[in-house]
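User: Second chain of the day. Same drill as before.
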Amino acid sequence: MSLLRFAARTMLASFFVVSGVKALRDPDPLVPATEPLAKAFLPLVEKSLPPEAAAYLPEDARGLVRLSGLAQVIGGLSLATGIARRAGALALAASMLPHLVASNPFAAGADDGPANKELWWRNLALTGGVLLASADTEGHPDLAWRAKSRAKAIGREAEHTKAALSREAAHTKASLTRRGKRAARKAKKVATKATKAVEGALK
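Assistant: Same format as last time:
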């Protein structure tokens, strides 16, 4: 890991840690705007999750804001320390959804003033930043690339093995054919000698 990557990730993560702590301490400013999202999102997730996992879901918008704040704190620390950083970055991107909804100036009845538009674009840029961080492999191949490369290598090995087996089968067939022909010629010679011997004896 380069020093530049570490510094950049730490600077990006610091915003989310501070924002997450603020949401945990005082979720009320985000609750009204998050209410429609909570009504649409929570029942859908509750239906798709097993009952034991659904029991941990928040029950209202306030709980969703707090959950988002917790995800930002954990994801920010993960991104800054490098421990499961890509998963942490994805969690940060997901945690920005309530903020994007809350600051959306294009929604009906929303505040479309310059300050709110600036806030929304900032939230959008931060979401894009953590999505980029989630795809950063630090110059190393990711699991998908390695799996694809391994599959190609296995495919090449299978083709080579198939070709080798085909050559061996062809060689064996040719060898058996030659042996068969030699045996047939010998049998023919023996039969010819036996026929001549019988004819000689009859004379």
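Residues 141-203 form one domain.

User: Great, on to the next one.
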